[in-house]
Specification:
The chain is mainly beta. It has one domain: TonB-dependent receptor, beta-barrel domain (Maltoporin, Chain A, Beta Barrel), CATH 2.40.170.20. The chain is built from five helices and 37 strands. The protein has a 22-stranded antiparallel beta barrel. It has a five-stranded mixed beta sheet with strand order 6-11-12-9-10. The longest helix has 14 residues, at about 1-15.
Length: about 675
């Protein structure tokens, strides 16, 4: 089997040869009824590149302590964080070579990714067993979730990303609704050094059902900085051949930028933006008595996401600063299924929807600059938010919806520091919403660092909420589901306790965290009406171990144990099977984890990831009554490597290769 794999890989490497040219003075991937097929999706890609030698820089410092901002809205060292914070740096993104964020997030303990169908199919994230709409996603501090917390991870790429900060547990005390389970903040790269223009062309292929799954990408970026100005911009396009030969492809365009201006020594201005548009076509349609088959020749969906922010930071003194940011989000969705010979397509049907959000946020920070309480920081802020929905559906049901709601949030937080060993961070936010009224969300976290042994003990308690989505409020009257504007927010009460330990002069680092979440007032369809009737508990243990064996070799192991239980179903649950009293929540594995080996030298490097996902409870939507089924466990291995070919005309050229699912494992992330 492996000899055949090597022959196939050799052919692919020849066919997919691509060149990345870097010019400068010194260097120049919907659910919408699609179900994943139980096949192995193996893809390989190769590139030649002339690039900034990020990976080849010799690492002499074993321990890295990055600055993070998402946990507290202020800059602080990761070692001083009091919650569960995970940082993925640009260097790590370069090593793994994954073009989409969903693949990177699989490595993080406590996060479960589920993709339906081929690339472009609906991709969901479950944080610590919570619902798929419980994690707030931000790009440079801009909330990009749909109102109500939903977010499509299928087309979110790693282009122009400097780092990703993940904060697990309820963060509503700072960020309000939708941060009920955690926060992911994607931070765009800032420009540095002399102006540079970088171009890249990549290609790859795989094996599907009647499809070669050809993939190719083009990318152009500009980057640079002067004494007062920095800028970074990038455009990329990816085209993916789908699993099926009929009507199955995915196209994704991304534009992103980050521009900063130092107006004075005290005043800094910054503008960031990200534009993504995708086109996903899929042939799967429901055939009575059979299930989902690839028979539809013209069904598809289009998505567009536009986010931008303008911010100003004014540092009045060394101990007092002000921050003001205005941000805008526009999320467009279009589903189309023209009339054809398929029995379920007897009419032309399409849905067009746009959701918008405008946010104005102001906060100020006061710091203690000396003494035993040095670095203690108090934050006070206020946020104004307006959300709007416009949606039109034509076909079996003709509907038009326009809705708007406003929200004000008032928040305060203190980051207490004593003797640089004891850290405590209490905070609270008052949410005042036009629809569901006033809610108070508190949180307190603390940590103690015993420097002599490299031990850190931390704990957190907090509450969070998720506001009802517009679709839950309006229902679908054309399908017999009326509106319900009396819905309350879904709620979470959570706590965790963790221990982190450094050994062998910080070459060996381990972490364990036990968490518990109680979710109440979950919204579900009951006797034909969306109602707050359900509840669930989740708890588990997250563990990780990282060993830098040498300056070149690093070995990392993670594991997550997750137990989920439905605590309340409510009377009259519609479309039975989603919640079963005492049963597990769907699509959350009880056990998951990965092993990663990373070897980097001055001239070459390789990164191997073996991902393991335990069995999950799911539903067979193709069978009568959609019975609950068990989706079996699987292992998957991915590898990425690079090699320096030499230097030509001042540019360093490298060959890069990435193989996904290199062992050709057959698995389904979502049953069907």
């Amino acid at each position: 089997m492996y000899s055949r794999m090597l022959r196939v890989l050799a052919v692919v490497l020849v066919l997919c040869l691509s060149v990345r040219t870097v010019v400068a003075e010194d260097r120049m991937e919907s659910q919408a009824d699609e179900k994943k097929q139980p096949l192995a999706q193996t893809q390989q890609s190769l590139a030649l590149s002339g690039d900034e030698p990020i990976l080849s820089q010799e690492v002499t410092e074993v321990a890295v302590d990055p600055v993070v901002v998402s946990e507290t809205r202020t800059e602080k060292r990761l070692s001083q964080s009091t919650g569960s914070v995970h940082v993925i740096t640009r260097e790590e993104l370069e090593k793994r070579q994954f073009p989409y964020l969903r693949e990177v997030l699989r490595d993080v303990p406590g996060l479960a990714i589920v993709q339906t169908g081929s690339r472009g199919g609906t991709t969901s994230l479950f944080t610590r067993g919570g619902e798929a709409d419980y994690t707030m996603v931000m790009i440079d501090g801009v909330k990009v979730n749909d109102p109500g917390g939903g977010f499509e991870f299928a087309n979110l790429t790693t282009d122009n990303v400097e780092r990703i900060e993940i904060v697990k547990g309820p963060q509503s005390a700072l960020y309000g609704s939708d941060a009920i389970g955690g926060v992911i903040n994607i931070i765009t790269r800032r420009g540095s050094g002399a102006a540079k223009i970088t171009g890249e062309v990549m290609g790859g292929a795989g094996r599907g059902i009647g499809s070669s799954m050809v993939t190719h990408q083009q990318r152009v970026s500009v980057n640079g900085a002067s004494e007062r100005l920095d800028f970074s911009g990038e455009w990329s396009r990816m085209d993916h051949g789908g699993t099926f030969g009929l009507n199955n492809r995915f196209k994704n365009n991304v534009f992103s930028g980050n521009f900063g201006f130092k107006a004075t020594e005290k005043l800094q201005l910054r503008s960031t933006f990200r534009y993504t548009d995708s086109d996903f076509q899929f042939p799967t349609d429901f055939v009575s008595g059979v299930g989902y088959l690839p028979v539809d020749p013209n069904q598809g969906q289009e998505r567009t996401l536009i986010s931008f922010a303008n911010s100003a930071r004014y540092r009045m003194t060394d101990w007092w600063d002000h921050s003001l940011q205005w941000s805008h989000l526009e999320s467009r969705f279009k589903f189309f299924d023209p009339r054809d010979s398929i029995p379920t397509d007897s009419v032309n049907s399409h849905t067009d929807g746009t959701q918008r959000r405008d946010v104005l946020d102001y906060h100020t920070n006061f710091r203690v600059s000396e003494g035993m309480f040095r670095d203690t920081t108090a934050t006070v802020g206020v946020e104004w938010q307006q959300e709007r929905l416009s949606r039109t559906t034509v076909g079996f049901s003709n509907e038009s919806t326009n809705l708007s709601r406003g929200n004000r949030g008032y928040y305060a937080q203190v980051q207490g520091v004593w003797l640089d060993r004891f850290f405590i961070t209490p905070g609270v936010r008052v949410e005042d919403n036009e629809f569901f009224g006033t809610f108070v969300n508190p949180k307190v976290s603390g940590a103690y660092i015993h420097k002599e042994t490299g031990t850190k003990i931390r704990g957190t308690f907090g509450r969070g909420i998720r506001a009802p989505a517009f679709t839950e409020l309006t229902g679908f009257p054309g399908f017999g589901i009326p509106s319900n504007f009396s819905l309350r927010p879904e709620k979470a009460t959570s706590w965790e306790i963790g221990v982190e330990q450094d050994l062998l002069d910080k070459r060996l680092a381990g972490s364990v965290t036990w968490f518990h979440n109680a979710f109440t007032d979950l919204i579900a369809l009951s006797t034909g009406l969306n109602t707050n009737i359900q509840g669930a508990d989740t708890e588990g243990l997250e563990s990780s171990l990282r060993w830098r064996a040498t300056n070149e070799l690093t070995v990392s192991v993670t594991h997550t144990y997750l137990n989920t239980e439905v605590t309340e179903v409510g009377a009259g649950q519609s479309f039975g099977g989603l919640f079963t009293p005492g049963g597990r929540l769907l699509r959350r594995p009880e056990h998951s984890g990965n092993v990663r080996l990373d070897y980097q030298t001055d001239t070459w490097g390789i990164n191997l990831i073996v991902l393991g996902v335990g069995d999950r409870v799911d539903r067979d939507f193709a069978s009568a009554g959609s019975p609950r089924v068990r989706n079996k466990a699987y292992w998957r291995a991915d590898v990425a490597a690079w090699h320096v070919l030499g230097k030509f005309d001042g540019s360093e050229w490298r060959a890069k290769v990435r193989i996904e699912n290199m062992t050709n494992t057959r698995y389904q992330e979502a049953f069907g």
